[in-house]
């Protein structure tokens, strides 16, 4: 965990550059979903490999 002052400064830095909390929340959710999709894809490939 980052120091609270550093977190606030970083959030301010992002906001000054037009990156809003809504944008960061979207990116976070997108990354989680992407990881899940990639993991499922890998599991399916593994399943196909084991079947052979």
Strand percentage: under 5%
Going by helix content, strand content and strand pairing, the class is mainly alpha
Radius of gyration (CA) equals 18 Å
Q: List SSEs in N-to-C order.
A: HH
In total, the number of strands is 0
Kindly report how far apart the N and C termini lie: 45 Å
* Largest β sheet strand count, sense and barrel closure: none
In short:
This protein is mainly α and 52 residues long.
Keywords, separated by commas or semicolons:
MAM33_sf, 52 residues, mainly alpha
Detailed description of the structure:
The longest helix is centred in the C-terminal third of the chain and has 31 residues, at 21-51. This protein has helices spanning 4-16, 21-51. The chain has a domain at 20-52. 85% of the residues lie in helices and 0% in strands.
List the helices and strands and how they pair.
Blueprint: H1 4-16, H2 21-51
